[in-house]
Amino acid sequence: MVKSSGWAIIRFTVLRVLLFGGIWLLLQLTTPLRGLIAAVVALLVSGVISTVVLNRQRAAMGVSLAGFFGRINARIDASSRAEDEADDLERSGKGEQEAQAESVDKNE
Fold it and tell me: Helix (H, G, I), strand (E, B), or coil: what is residue 70?
């Protein structure tokens, strides 16, 4: 079971940055790589490692994000439904008024 909470995004991001920082520091101490090249290599290596090591945290973050965007989509859908219902009521009211106006015109 994947734990879902608001902290899942922060937890994953912090662990990902720490993993990148650790790999970058290790590269700085043990290899002649410096600057942008060291950062790119650290990014690639930490990305590969995080796919395995941070899998549970990534899944929890995904559940958290899906819930967040699901709530936003639900609010948008509810707003759209309310707007459509208001439009339908307005149209049906105009239709009745036009029918009444036509019957009045025919009677005169």
Answer: helix
Question: DSSP of 72-86, one letter per residue?
Answer: HHHHHHHHHHHHHHH
Q: Domain residues of the chain, as ranges?
A: 7-107
Instruction: Report whether 24 contacts 39 (CB < 8 A).
Output: yes
Convert the pLDDT of each residue in 29-71 to its tens digit: 999 989 899 999 999 999 999 999 999 999 999 998 998 899 9
Of the candidates 12, 52, 21, 15, the one whose C-alpha atom is nearest the C-alpha of residue 39 is 21
Task: In the chain, count H helices and then E strands.
Answer: 3, 0
Query: What pTM was computed for the model?
Result: 0.63
For residue 7, count other CB atoms closer than 10 A to its CB: 13
Q: Which two tokens stand for residue 60?
A: 């929890």
> Nearest 5 degrees, angle CA 71-CA 68-CA 15?
170
